[in-house]
Amino acid sequence: MPAKTPVSVTARVRLAGTVSEKCRVELEDYPVTFDNSYYFSLQPSPKVRVVDITAQQVPPTQQLYANEPLFTYTRATAGGLNYQVTEEANLLLVQGQSQITAGLRESLRRVVQRGGSVAIVPTDNPQGRASYDQLFRDLGIGPVQWEDVASKPALRSVAVPERRNPFFRDVFGVQSRQPVMPKAAPVLRWSRSSNEILRLQDGDGFLGAFTSGKGTVYLFSTPFDETRTDFAQHALFVPVMYRLAMQSFQREQQPAYRLNQGTVVVPIDAAPGQGEQVFKLTKDSLTFIPSQRLQAGTLRFEVPAAMREPGFYTLLRGNQPVATLAFNNDKKESELAVYSADELRQLIGPNRKNVQVYDASAGESVAARYKAERVGTPLWQYCLWAALACLLAEVLLLRFLNAPKAAEPVAMAA
After folding, report:
1. Which of 112, 194, 285, 410 has its CA 20 to 30 A from that of 86?
2. 349 — phi, psi (to 5°)?
């Protein structure tokens, strides 16, 4: 990896069970030996909850979603609607309703406000247009115009989808010829949407996505009636409806968190029959009780300031584990940028006499440089050698200067 350059590596991992897996990425970055591990957890996605509100006995979407284990499909009527189930849905599909009641309209509004998705298939009954217009205003969609309903509608071809649209990522393979697209006779027309997923060849919208609250509203321009469109019998029907449901799922629990990020949001399943519970974070012998708030199935807590060790932490509700969270150090921990000695001196300035910068780039250690500048050169060795030399000189002087002289011969008279 070049310095300060990101590199993407894709690895496909298959999770066999339903339990979250603890994962770790380790880097070999010699001579750096700190912060070379990144912890994260992978959790299999739960089933996407799809609620289909329709008056048809066997709608085309029933077999589509009910036979796929990835989805939990519920069919309901507007009169026998369980609003608790409706508001917990990831995708709420409303198709062919002659009237949109006030209760259903309020339920749809709450779904998108919490981040869910709503897919609307309109009716060709002119008497229900006023209730739909009120629904569009409540969801912030507009302006939407109604087309004249003819007894024999003229079907128009749907344009080939734009492959660069993220909605169709990995949907189409390499094709050698132009695909045959479905036909439709719209009853709705809009001027602008957040994302035109499918258009007619003349430019009018067939399927548009509108941002509403924290969620998304998908609007079809025509009913799924065979006299209005053959989209439900077309091969494009399956991937489009699957993608609508899969994009409606939002995972609030992240694979990894930072120890300095502040607030952590974790979805918590309701525990019926239990009173107020305290959530704790544990790792080996460490236990932390963060500042926390549980509301509408979502736990928000502050990362404790004393929690500084990266790794895996178990989130406990009382003594029952509910999630495994991975925490890592701040990204600044891996910053390897350095200052030169001259840059440090400029940052310190000339007014801080008590701060000294020692440059060890010349090969001399910092301790040796400090010793030379602050302690000075030790002279005791020279003093010792001088003392020994003086002692030697004294010994030599005493030995040779005080040596006894030979007596001169004295003449004697004979």
Report:
1. 194
2. 85, 170
